[in-house]
Design a protein that fits this description.
Elements lengths: L2 E8 L2 E7 L3 E6 L5 H14 L10 H6 L5 E4 H18 L1 H4 L11 E6 L9 E5 L7 E5 L5 E6 L11 H17 L6 E4 L3 H6 L1 H18 L12 H11 L1 H4 L5 H5 L1 H11 L1 E5 L5 E5 L13 H5 L1 H10 L5 E5 L7 H17 L2 E6 L2 H12 L5 H9 L13 E10 L11 E7 L2 E2 L3 E2 L2 H19 L3
Parallel strand pairs: 3-13, 3-14, 9-12, 12-13
Antiparallel strand pairs: 1-2, 1-5, 4-8, 6-7, 7-8, 10-11, 14-15, 16-17
Helix pairs in contact: 7-8, 11-14, 14-15
């Protein structure tokens, strides 16, 4: 699978491009655009169905009443995705809960090679009380779709072209595009606060909307919105009681992952019969509310529920700063868990400031070679084969200010915030200069403190 995103003038990012691997990391200093990239991607993956429209003309639908109309799906789907990206870009202010016009100079492009047209097939009858019946079909092995009136008798009936277009849109989206994009789940950087006040947030929002209704106030509801990642994270945390009734494929097939995650959490989350959420520390029966629990317990709450109740193969698990409130050892352990998820078919996308996460990922890459001493090192340090990951599964980008590619009409390259691909060596791992420089500076200063008198 190849999924590539290109951004222009989105937040602080002037120009950027990144591709998704099985495990994707965007790292860098504060205020360099990491969250903008993550939010733009999440917004598209969570709303693409709203922007796809099949490019069939009114004339073609009228023509189909009397003869077969052949449609090149390869070209049509490319055009659909291009147009969907344009429409999505126009809605970026809603995705980010920003004032209208904030992203008027922005561009968002999404490319994928996962739209498998040739092997898809469908044979649908488009009918309603108002319309003549059409047959819209495609055979396996073909890249063309056929649109035609079902019978000659129906050729003279009046036609509601918009309803025909809507039916075609639905078929194309479900039969061609469905499965071409990963289903996203996001744990936002605000998850610690959301988990603390999840009930209060729901109550406060409902009360505000209720008061507005009774007061008959006219207000744009977008003024009450959060950015999509925060909104969806809050909604997920607010409906734990419902999701807790479902078991994910991880809970069914890989319960050992949940056991390891519970060990990182240091206990388990429990929902009582009265729909109350508690945290129970390991080896105790003492129940703590989220307010009483540690920040690490709150930061891992939605990830735990996702793994236990929501995860599906093919998903994209997105986490903004997974290191929130975690001890360095647990940062290492959760990195190993990410690699296991990636190897099971759940893609992982994170933004991070953590050198521990990057260094641990280095270890997993470096150990993934068939050499006797590496097997010994892995065994002595408790690494499992399921945690090792190959270099071609990993994508790492550094958010920083750098020279941008030349644009049309420019004579000199400009500097701006972008995403620079990190070099990943199969035996030496990932090079992230910003982390290395900081650590080198700290070591130099401490050396001066200890040895400076000599």
């Amino acid at each position: 699978m190849s999924l590539t995103v290109r951004l222009k003038n989105i937040g602080i990012l002037k120009q950027a491009e990144f591709s998704l691997g099985d495990l994707t990391i965007i790292c860098g200093e504060n205020n360099t655009g990491k969250t903008y990239a993550a939010c733009a991607l999440y917004g598209f993956l969570s709303s693409w169905r709203n922007f796809l429209r099949f490019p069939i003309s009114n004339a073609h639908i009228q023509q189909a009443r009397t003869e077969l109309v052949k449609i090149d799906l390869a070209q049509a789907t490319d055009d659909m995705l291009t147009e969907a990206c344009k429409k999505y870009t126009e809605q970026l202010h809603k995705i980010f809960a920003a004032p209208e016009g904030t992203f008027q100079d922005s561009e968002f492009h999404f490319e994928t090679d996962e739209i498998d047209i040739e092997h898809k097939k469908f044979n649908s009858i488009l009918t309603s009380l108002q319309n003549p019946a059409f047959i819209f079909s495609k055979s396996e092995g073909s890249k063309e779709a056929i649109l035609a009136a079902r019978t000659e008798k129906e050729q003279e009936r009046e036609i509601d072209i918009d309803s025909v277009k809507s039916a075609i849109d639905f078929i194309i989206i479900e039969d061609i595009f469905s499965g071409s994009f990963p289903r996203p789940f996001i744990a936002s950087a605000e998850r610690t606060g959301i988990s603390t006040f999840r009930k209060e947030l729901n109550f406060a929002r409902s009360r505000l909307l209720d008061e507005m209704w009774h007061a008959n106030r006219k207000i744009d509801l977008w003024e009450l919105r959060y950015p999509f990642p925060i909104r969806d994270d809050a909604e997920f945390i607010g409906r734990f009681e419902d999701s807790a009734k479902i078991k994910s494929f991880i809970a069914k097939e890989h319960p050992e992952i949940l056991e390891d995650f519970a060990d990182i959490v240091g206990g388990k989350y429990v929902i009582t019969q009265n729909d109350q959420l508690y945290y129970v520390p390991k080896d105790t029966r003492h129940k703590l509310t989220m307010v009483e629990s540690s920040s690490s317990v709150r930061s891992l709450l939605d990830i735990s529920f996702y793994l236990r109740h929501e995860a599906e193969k093919g998903d994209l698990l997105m986490i903004d700063e997974p290191e929130l409130s975690l001890h360095p050892e647990n940062q290492r352990r959760i990195t190993r868990l990410f690699a296991r998820l990636a190897n099971l078919g759940v893609k992982v996308f994170i933004t991070t400031h953590s050198d521990y996460i990057v260094k641990e990922l280095n270890t997993l890459i470096m150990l993934n070679h068939d050499k006797p001493h590496l097997k010994r090192v892995a065994e002595e340090n408790g690494y499992q084969d399921s945690e090792l990951i190959s270099v071609d599964q990993v994508k790492v980008y550094i958010a920083e200010k750098a020279l941008l590619p030349l644009e049309e009409g420019q004579k000199r390259r400009r500097r701006g915030h972008t995403l620079v691909p990190a070099k990943i060596h199969p035996e030496l791992g990932i090079g992230v200069s910003s982390f290395d420089k900081t650590i080198d500076d700290m070591n130099r200063i401490q050396d001066d403190i200890v040895w400076g008198e000599e």
